[in-house]
Amino acid sequence: MNNNFRCNCPITSALDIVGDKWTLVIIKQMLLEGKKTFKDFSASDEAVASNILSSRLKMLEEFKMISKEKLPHNKKTNIYLLTEKGLGLTPTIVELTLWSDGNIREYHSSIISDSRLEMVKNNKEKSIKIIVESYKQNTGYNKT
Question: For the whole model, what pTM was predicted?
Answer without folding.
Answer: 0.88
